[in-house]
Amino acid sequence: MPNISEKQYAQLEPWFKLKATEFNKLGYENIQVDDIYRYFKEFSWKHTVPPHYYQQIRDIMKTTVNHYFDFVALEAQVYKVSSLDEMNFDDFL
User: Fold this and answer.
1) What are the DSSP calls for 40-92, one per residue?
2) Crossing angle for the helix pair 53-62 and 6-25, nearest 10 degrees?
3) Is 1 helix (H, G, I), strand (E, B) or coil?
4) What InterPro entries is this protein classified in (predicted)?
5) Model pLDDT for residues 45-67, shown as the tens digit of each residue
6) pLDDT of the residue at 6
7) pLDDT of 32 strictly over 90
């Protein structure tokens, strides 16, 4: 998993906030800045972070709700839950 430094995060945080706000306006109020950051750290940039700042911003801005939900669905598949009753489905909507 790539290491995103505090400096890189500070530079990218406004863009993560912008994307979270966009998703919130689309009706997905449960998606927060940390969720967007986690999506990029654990999924989109799992193997490598784009080397240039403009490439990182481009990746953030072209991300759709469907991209994010692909990540959430994959996470749900590998999340160890003994029954569906234990899962909180409100986080997905």
Assistant:
1) IIIIITSS---SSHHHHHHHHHH--HHHHHHHHHHHHHHS--SSGGGS-GGGG
2) 20
3) coil
4) Post-transcriptional_regulator
5) 999 999 999 999 999 999 999 99
6) 86
7) yes
